[in-house]
Amino acid sequence: MTFPPPKTEAPVQRFKEATDAARDALQDVIAAANEAGWATEEITAALLEAAQFLSDANKKDPDPADDPIISDTSARQEQIGHGELYD
Question: What's the predicted TM-score (pTM) here?
């Protein structure tokens, strides 16, 4: 799936372009889900839940690429304060 780049910098127009592109992408996702046996109502509810989760995650950490790589912290250091050294 490809997503078109914005054609303008005007916020209102960008929002409309993003909405139109998202709607097109979601129609394809819903059609694929329907073919796989999911009802439209249940898949749209799941998509709304997933979108809310991603929105919340983005608000908490807008740039997760800047987070340290898990292997940068030793398992022993990571467990300090959790009541045990290793799982």
Answer: 0.65
